[in-house]
């Protein structure tokens, strides 16, 4: 059976619209906000309104579809990776700064029930997982959420959680109006007790302790957020409040199954921008790229271009597969990790090679090449490092637990 790798026509508008935004909004201000770290990109406010209107139109269009339901679908996850790729071609940090499109929004979409999806539909949510005591080991969460139920003096009953702890490397933590916090509801129950909570940033006891100065994606703020008896309603817990030792913390981990392909798509978009610069360098030097000749029979720089281009295409196909599986309710943890691992390694290899091939121009601020190389590094780190992705993949393929393979 032949495989059609063309995108469905209904997704073309998503690609065209987001690429235009990347080209005409992101690219012109990319260097400006790279140099103005922690300054909010006000140019994104109007873009956020347009994105919200487009998302509503797409949702309505999908819901108005008539006729029999297809066996397979291309839905929100496919749109997300397409948008991420195109916008990251413009600027990764700016893409992460668009109001209403935080990593916490993906967590809500992955785990929330229908009532929560409706209630938190218009929020801008950051995601708080990492703590000072751990990095990629998400099961080591020490932030606590303690149940507090009772009756107030006016006779009204309450059912809340009190959250205490500190989170680091919170993307958009100083700008978002909500944050999705990973916390344990019972330290003695291990990873099964880790739950995610939607916390308004205006909640008493929630403070932004500091902003990080970073190597790349400087237009996106990265914050340290502290929680001191931050009180949130029990209904803000995403998923089930029950501790299921058999399921472990699979509910909150579903977030990564959605967000890792998005990060992979970001890497592909950034890599595509760098690859286009590589092609321009070859063109200016008078070297043609001939796909009808073996790479080994062409100029060394051309052969390297062909290798990098094929690596990019492989990463993109893995990303599309992971997103498609998520849209079709297929378990995609392995595929999500495969796409993230491949794309994260690929984008660092490609952007560094372009800096090298561009020579002094690649090392200076004359072009965006050196910035892309700096921005690329984070794409192999956040949402799980390269090593974590390889562990996830190996455990699933070999049928081993986290205790058996570390």
Automatic annotation (TrEMBL):
Residue ranges annotated for the Acyl-CoA dehydrogenase/oxidase C-terminal domain, each copy included: 252-398
Compositionally biased residues, Basic and acidic residues: 146-155
Cofactors, names only: FAD
Region (Disordered): 51-75, 137-156
Keyword annotations: FAD, Flavoprotein, Oxidoreductase
InterPro entries named in the record: Acyl-CoA_Oxase/DH_mid-dom, Acyl-CoA_Oxase/DH_mid-dom_sf, AcylCo_DH-like_C, AcylCo_DH/oxidase_C, AcylCoA_DH/ox_N_sf, AcylCoA_DH/oxidase_NM_dom_sf
Domain of life of the native organism: Bacteria
Pfam families xrefs: Acyl-CoA_dh_1, Acyl-CoA_dh_M
Similarity annotation: Belongs to the acyl-CoA dehydrogenase family.
Name of the protein in question: Acyl-CoA dehydrogenase
């Amino acid at each position: 059976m032949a495989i059609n790798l063309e995108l469905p026509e209904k997704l073309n508008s998503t690609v065209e619209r987001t690429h235009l935004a990347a080209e005409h909004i992101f690219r012109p201000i990319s260097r400006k906000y790279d140099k103005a770290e922690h300054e909010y990109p006000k140019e994104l406010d109007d873009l956020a309104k347009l994105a919200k209107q487009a998302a509503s139109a797409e949702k309505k269009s999908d819901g108005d579809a008539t006729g029999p339901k297809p066996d397979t679908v291309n839905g929100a996850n496919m749109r997300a990776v397409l948008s991420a790729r195109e916008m990251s071609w413009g600027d990764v940090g700016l893409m992460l700064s668009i109001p209403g499109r935080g990593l916490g929004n993906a967590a809500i979409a992955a785990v929330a029930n229908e009532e929560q999806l409706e209630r938190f539909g218009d929020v801008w949510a950051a995601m708080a997982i990492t703590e000072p005591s751990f990095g990629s080991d998400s099961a080591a969460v020490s932030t606590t959420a303690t149940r507090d139920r009772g009756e107030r003096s006016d006779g009204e009953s309450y059912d809340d959680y009190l959250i205490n702890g500190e989170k680091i490397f919170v993307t958009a933590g100083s700008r978002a109006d909500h944050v999705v916090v990973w916390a344990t509801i019972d330290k003695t129950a291990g990873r099964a007790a880790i739950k995610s909570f939607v916390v308004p940033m205006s909640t008493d006891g929630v403070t932004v302790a500091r902003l990080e100065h970073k190597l790349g994606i400087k237009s996106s703020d990265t914050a340290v957020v502290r929680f001191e008896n931050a009180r949130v309603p029990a209904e803000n817990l995403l998923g089930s409040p029950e501790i299921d030792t058999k399921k472990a913390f699979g509910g909150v981990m579903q977030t990564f199954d959605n967000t890792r392909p998005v990060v992979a798509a970001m890497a592909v978009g950034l890599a595509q921008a760098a690859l286009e610069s590589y092609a321009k360098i070859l063109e200016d030097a008078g070297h043609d790229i001939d796909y009808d000749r073996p790479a080994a029979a062409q100029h060394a720089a051309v052969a390297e271009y062909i290798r990098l281009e094929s690596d990019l295409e492989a990463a993109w196909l893995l990303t599309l597969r992971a997103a498609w599986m998520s849209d079709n309710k297929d378990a995609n943890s392995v595929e999500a990790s495969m796409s993230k691992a491949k794309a994260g390694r690929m984008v660092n290899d490609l952007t560094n090679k372009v800096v090298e091939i561009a020579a002094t121009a690649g090392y200076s601020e004359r072009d965006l090449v050196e910035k892309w190389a700096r921005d690329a590094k984070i794409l192999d780190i956040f949402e799980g490092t390269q090593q974590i992705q390889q562990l996830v993949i190996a455990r699933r393929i070999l049928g081993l637990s986290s205790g058996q393979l570390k």
